[in-house]
Amino acid sequence: MTRLSHLKALLLLGLPLIGSHVAQMAITTTDTVMLGWYDVTALAAATLASSIFFTLFIVGSGFAWAVMPLVAAASEEGDEVQARRVTRMGLWLSMIYGIIMLPPMFFSEPIFRAIGQEADVAALAEQYLRIAGFGMLPALFVMVLKAFLSALERTQIILWVTLGAAGLNAVVNYALIFGNWGAPELGVRGAAVASVMVQLASGALLTFYVLRALPEFALFQRIWRRDAEAMGTVFRLGWPIGVTSFAETGLFTASAIMMGWLGAVELAAHGIALQMASLTFMVHLGLSQAATVRAGRALGRKDIGGLKAGGSVAIGASVLFAAVTIAAFLLLPETLLGLFVDPDDPQRPAILAVGVGLLAMAALFQFVDGAQVMALGLLRGVQDTRVPMIHASLSYWGLGLPAGYVLGFPLGLGGIGIWLGLVVGLAMAAVLLLGRFYGPTLRRLQTG
After folding, report:
1. What is the distance between the alpha carbons of residues 448 and 442, in angstroms, rounded to a whole number?
2. CA 390, CA 18: separation in Å to the nearest integer?
3. Residues 53-68: what's their mean pLDDT?
4. How far apart are CA 433 and CA 374, in angstroms?
5. Euclidean distance between the first and final Cα of the chain, in Å?
6. 261-293 pLDDT per residue, tens
7. How far is CA 442 from CA 238, 313, 334, in A?
8. Do 159 and 202 meet the contact criterion of CB atoms below 8 Å apart?
9. What is the pLDDT of residue 31?
């Protein structure tokens, strides 16, 4: 294949995934806006609870991420049985994990109070999780089906289902949070109910699609039968992915905590800048997932030359988008930040002043953030996850977090220093992970 052909294939697969990630962000944004309209305490509680839910969810999603390269490789070999086996066991492991996570969410108020949260916020957060926690099972179920469909390059259905979920979430939130259209006014519990309903609806739609469009895989036939070999394969590949995702999520959570030590204005500016950086990251994440599938298929047909060329094209596409983002962040910082701040807010000038510096740092880490997630995607595609987990965790927590603290506080750089720490950690991850892919991993595949 030519590089142009690789690029076309990458975008055909990746653009719907990017759209689905943006739509998923819209769901979170809708929750935030509507709860903010309803009650500040409810918003604080839901923000706290959903951050815990997301952290637990991202760890459990490792098994879904593992399904993607395994199915891609099996599909390229024409082995529908193996694709079915690993997907089923991905569902098994995800459901087992979801059940294990239910008790800590159901009895979470003492945990929240132990970490210093206010009593009313902790109580509301537990109410949210006692309902939303049951959504962990369908949410992980959906993740596995999305991975299965992505591996088969059926990404458009993922986009449409996620867009539908965003719309449904907005409607149900409006009804149940505020008590509109004759529905009960449930506040934060209404947001939790909406979340579970959206996850159940998404799972039902994707299940229906798989049954109708892909009957040859017989995915749910005798699903109750345990397959120890396939389960072991998914587990060995999936748990390092979950730990890696947790380490990266934890890095940004810790940075928010440190920004909070600086003050409310700094934390608000951090939240806005991070929201914008997260939006651009969805592009890199979608391209990374497409790269995982493309790499898995190249592995399945033992096309190492195509794997290397396709990987370079994927990284190049990420770099190009990062360059566009950097230009926007550096040339239009106040315009972009102003979209998130009320023009009449007396703290607007202070927030914008801090935010401009943070956006400059966000521009600086666009390249390295894109590079490290692309490298992770390629390594997952060739089923290399354990050493990358070590590289990423050491980069994020062994270097990035301490660097952010030292630069931010002892050296007195404040928020700029904390974000420079993020840059340092992500840059080290990018160097190590790209070195892993183009070094030991490709050599092993070429000689094996």
Report:
1. 10
2. 27
3. 91
4. 9
5. 22
6. 887 677 777 777 877 888 888 899 999 999 999
7. 21, 16, 44
8. no
9. 77
pLDDT band at 49 (very low <50, low <70, confident <90, very high): confident
Q: For residues 227 and 182, is the Cβ–Cβ distance under 8 A?
A: no
Structural contact between residues 324 and 239, judged by C-beta atoms closer than 8 angstroms:
no
Give whole-number Cα distances, 92 to 104, 144, 297, 394, 448, in Å. Answer: 20, 10, 24, 30, 31
| Residue that is written with structure tokens 């209404």 in the block | 190
Amino acid, res. 67: V
pLDDT at 209: 96
Q: Considering the entire predicted model, what is its pTM? A: 0.89
More confident of the two residues 188 and 70: 70
* Domain ranges for the chain: 20-226, 239-448
Q: Is the pLDDT of residue 97 over 90?
A: yes
Handedness of CA 30, 32, 33, 35 (dihedral sign): positive
Mean of the pLDDT values across residues 96-119? 86
Summarised one tens digit per residue, pLDDT across range 388-426 is: 999 999 999 999 999 999 999 999 898 889 989 989 999
Rounded Cα gap, residues 402 and 404, in angstroms: 5
| SS3 readout for the chain | CCHHHHHHHHHHHHHHHHHHHHHHHHHHHHHHHHHHHHCHHHHHHHHHHHHHHHHHHHHHCHHHHHHHHHHHHHHHCCCHHHHHHHHHHHHHHHHHHHHHHHHHHHCCHHHHHHCCCCHHHHHHHHHHHHHHHHHHHHHHHHHHHHHHHHHCCCCHHHHHHHHHHHHHHHHHHHHHHHCHHHCCCCCHHHHHHHHHHHHHHHHHHHHHHHHHHCHHHCCCCCCCCCCHHHHHHHHHHHHHHHHHHHHHHHHHHHHHHHHHHHCHHHHHHHHHHHHHHHHHHHHHHHHHHHHHHHHHHHHHCCCHHHHHHHHHHHHHHHHHHHHHHHHHHHHCHHHHHHCCCCCCCCCHHHHHHHHHHHHHHHHHHHHHHHHHHHHHHHHHHCCCCHHHHHHHHHHHHHHHHHHHHHHHCCCCCHHHHHHHHHHHHHHHHHHHHHHHHHHHHHHHHHHC
Q: Residue 130 carries which side chain, given as an amino acid letter?
A: R
pLDDT of residue 341: 65
Put residue 78 in one of left, alpha, beta given phi > 0 → left and psi -120 to 50 → alpha.
left
CA distance 421 to 407: 7
Angle CA(163)–CA(46)–CA(103) in degrees, nearest 5? 100
Q: Under a CB-based contact definition with an 8 Å cutoff, are residues 69 and 384 in contact?
A: no
- What confidence score (pLDDT) does residue 336 get? 79
445 contact partners, CB below 8 Å, separation of at least 6: 299, 304, 307, 382
